[in-house]
From TrEMBL:
Entry keyword annotation includes Protein biosynthesis: no
Organism field: Novosphingobium anseongense
Keyword annotations from UniProtKB, A to Z: Sigma factor, Transcription, Transcription regulation
Protein name, per record: Sigma-70 family RNA polymerase sigma factor
InterPro entries attached to this UniProt entry: RNA_pol_sigma-70-like, RNA_pol_sigma-70_dom, RNA_pol_sigma70_r2, RNA_pol_sigma70_r4_t2, RNA_pol_sigma_r2, RNA_pol_sigma_r3/r4-like, WH-like_DNA-bd_sf
Amino acid sequence: MGRSEDNLSGGSGDAARVRLTEALVGTGEEDRSAFQRVYALTSAKLFGICFRICGDRQAAEDVLHEVYLTIWKRAGSFQPGRASPITWLATVARNRAIDWRRANPARRTGPFEWADDIADGGIAADDAIIAGESDRRLHLCLDSLDANQRSAIRAAFFDGLTYAELAQRKEVPLGTMKSWVRRGLARLKDCLDDD
């Protein structure tokens, strides 16, 4: 088990989920100390998501600030039975970072491969997102997709790339990329619905 997992959970993934769920529910009730716990438990992971998508440390810090403002405002809408807390939080971070990227397309600094070298003391954001039982199912379903569909969906959702960026990266027509993603998402839905 990684160092960050120990810090987050005190040794157990289930305990980590419970602690984070309780803190997030408390945040939804406008409990400032619960909000501080959410921040302490998740800031490294959410910063990693923002940084991977923004590609710029200062931008990622600015986006992360907006992420926590959004969490403070929307925590009351979190439903523990629908999603794991880290998935819900990661979705907020991803969406905010993508909004920033769309508003600042010229500020992209380059490929994100080097972003994995950031020492945030935590496990990778991708690992945090695919952590719980339902997320493992998603991961298995992703692995069952065609390689082109799988890589396009992962790049779109984990790196925040647009259809145009994906098509350029893979050197395929935009229509082909859209087709890969749409078909992949349809197959992914079917796989997840097969429970």
